[in-house]
Design goal:
Helix content is 42%, strand content 16%. It is of the alpha/beta class. The protein has a single domain (5-213, 244-276, 310-336), classed as Rossmann fold (3-Layer(aba) Sandwich). Strands 3-2-1-4-5-6-10 form a seven-stranded parallel β-sheet, sandwiched between helices. It has a three-stranded mixed β-sheet with strand order 7-9-11. The chain is globular. The protein binds nicotinamide-adenine-dinucleotide and 2'deoxy-thymidine-5'-diphospho-alpha-D-glucose (DAU). The site of 2'deoxy-thymidine-5'-diphospho-alpha-D-glucose has 19 residues, from helix 7 and strand 8.
C-alpha cells in the first residue's frame, strides 16, 4: 500500500503516546504510522488494541538508544516525521535511579536526532519534522503566593495560587533528575535546529490525566487505591499544585503543532487548571465513591500523609496563550467532565490495571516480540 508519508511516534505504547498514535492512525489513513517503543514496564500494546489491525499502523520494538537500529528503521521506511515521546517519565523513579533517566531521555533523544540527521541532511530538510515532547517541569517550580487559593483568579487574569506562570521564555531550572534529563534533551533538540538547520519543534506540557496512565502516577494510583480501600499516600501536606490537562486535549495539540507549528519554535501546552493535590484527591474520592455507590467522601479516612518527595516542586502553572493565539488550540474538556470520564474508565478497566500492576502483560509481549 502506498502512503503519502511515514511518521515514527516514539513511546507510542505508553500513556500519552498511545493517544497520539490512535489519533494519527484514525485521522490520517494516508500516513503510515510506526509506533517505535522498547516496551519498558510503562509500555503496553494493549493500549492500542483498537488500532493494531489498521493497514496504516505498524509496531516496531526498538530502543531509541540503539543508534544503528534507529538509523536503519528511519532509512528503510523513508521516514519524514518523528514525534518523540519515548522517555522515562516518573519523577519518583528518577530520584532512585537517575542513570536510567540520563540514558533514555538524554542519550536516547540524541541518538534519535543524529539518526534522523544523517538520513535527512543529504536529501535537504524540506518536508521533514522532528517534534520533541517535553514537560513544564524543566522550568522548575513556582511559589504558592496565594496559599488559600483564589477562586476569582481566572477572571482577574492570574492563577488561583499565584499570578505568575511558566511562559516559553521562562528560564530552565529543573530540580529532579527526571526534569534535568528532559531539560538536557530539549537543549539537544534546539542545538540540532540551530547548528544543522534541522526542522524541529518542542512543546512543554503540564500534567496529563486520562485512560491508560500507568498506576504509579497520582490519579490512576489513587482511583485504584480508593476502589480497594487502600491508603492514599499524600506527599508532605498535600499542598503542592499541578495544572491538569486531559490527555486527548494534549494529543490534539500535538497534531496541530506537528502540522502547523512554526519550525524552531517552542509552545507551552496547559489547561489553566491548577489544583492543590489535597483538593484534587478529595474530588477523586467523592467521584469514585459516588460511581461505586458508596456515600460520597466516605473514603476520606484513606488519606495518609507520608514523607514528602525529595526536592518536591511546589507549583506548576503553564501559560499556553501563545498556542491559543497562534494556532487556535484550547483545552476542550472541563475538568469535572474529564475526571468523571477518567474515574469511570479505571473503574470499568480493572483488568487493565491488574495486568499492568502484575507484570503479566510484560511476559506476554516479551514472548511475542523476542
Ligand atoms: P510513559 O512512561 O507512560 O510512556 C513512556 C513510553 O516510552 C513507554 O511506552 C516506554 O516503553 C517507552 N520507552 C521508554 N524508554 C524507551 C526507550 N529507551 N526506547 C523506546 N521506547 C522507550 O510516559 P508518558 O506519561 O506517556 O509521557 C510521554 C512523554 O510526554 C514523555 O517524554 C514525558 O516526558 C512527556 N510528558 C508527560 C507528561 C505527563 O503528565 N505524563 C506531561 C508532559 C510531558
Ligand atoms: O508536569 C508534567 C509532569 O507531570 C510530567 O512531565 C511527568 O512525566 C508526570 O509524571 C507528572 O509529574 P508529577 O510528579 O507532577 O506527577 P505525579 O503523578 O507523580 O504526582 C502528582 C503530584 O502528586 C505531585 O505533587 C506528587 C504528588 N503525589 C504523587 C504520588 C504518586 C503524592 O502526593 N502521592 C503519590 O503517591
Amino acid at each position: 500500500m502506498e502512503f503519502d508519508r511515514t511518521i515514527i511516534i516514539t513511546g507510542g505504547a505508553g500513556f500519552i503516546g498511545s493517544h497520539v498514535v490512535r489519533l494519527f492512525v484514525n485521522k490520517y489513513p494516508e500516513y503510515k504510522i510506526i509506533n517505535l517503543d522498547k516496551l519498558t514496564y510503562a509500555g503496553n500494546l494493549a493500549n492500542l488494541k483498537d488500532v493494531e489491525d489498521k493497514p496504516n499502523y505498524q509496531f516496531i520494538k526498538a530502543d531509541i538508544c540503539d543508534y544503528e537500529t534507529i538509523k536503519e528503521i528511519i532509512s528503510t521506511n523513508n521516514v519524514t516525521g518523528i514525534i518523540h515521546l519515548a522517555a522515562e517519565s516518573h519523577v519518583d523513579r528518577s530520584i532512585v535511579d537517575p542513570f536510567t533517566f540520563a540514558r533514555t531521555n538524554v542519550m536516547g533523544t540524541l541518538s534519535l536526532l543524529q539518526a534522523a540527521r544523517v538520513f535527512w541532511e543529504p536529501q535537504g530538510w524540506a518536508g521533514r519534522r522532528f517534534y520533541h515532547i517535553s514537560t513544564d517541569e524543566v522550568y522548575g517550580a513556582l511559589e504558592l503566593t496565594k496559599p488559600e487559593g483564589d477562586p476569582s483568579a481566572k477572571e482577574c487574569g492570574g492563577g488561583p495560587f499565584g499570578d505568575d506562570f511558566f511562559t516559553e521564555s521562562t528560564k530552565y531550572q529543573p530540580h529532579s533528575p527526571y526534569s534535568a534529563a528532559k531539560a538536557s534533551s530539549d537543549h539537544f533538540v534546539r542545538a540540532y535546529h540551530d547548528t544543522y538547520g534541522m526542522p524541529t519543534l518542542v512543546t512543554n506540557c503540564s500534567n496529563n490525566y486520562g485512560p491508560f496512565q500507568f498506576p504509579e502516577k497520582l490519579i490512576p494510583l489513587f482511583i485504584n487505591n480508593i476502589r480497594h480501600r487502600r491508603p492514599l499516600p499524600v506527599y508532605g501536606k498535600g499542598e503542592n499544585v499541578r495544572d491538569w490537562l486531559y490527555v486527548e486535549d494534549h494529543a490534539r495539540a500535538i497534531d496541530i503543532i506537528f502540522h502547523e507549528g512554526k519550525i524552531g519554535e517552542t509552545y507551552n501546552i496547559g489547561g489553566f487548571n491548577e489544583w492543590k493535590n489535597i483538593d484534587l484527591i478529595k474530588v477523586l474520592i467523592k467521584t469514585t465513591d459516588r460511581l461505586l455507590g458508596r456515600p460520597e467522601g466516605s473514603d476520606d479516612d484513606l488519606i495518609t500523609f507520608v514523607t514528602d518527595r525529595k526536592g518536591h516542586d511546589m507549583r506548576y502553572a503553564i501559560d499556553s496563550t501563545k498556542l491559543k493565539e497562534e494556532l487556535g488550540w484550547e483545552p476542550s474538556l472541563q475538568f469535572e467532565e474529564g475526571i468523571e470520564k477518567t474515574v469511570k474508565w479505571y473503574l470499568e478497566h480493572q483488568d487493565w490495571l491488574d495486568n499492568v500492576t502484575s507484570g503479566d502483560y510484560m511476559k506476554y509481549y516479551e514472548e511475542m516480540y523476542k
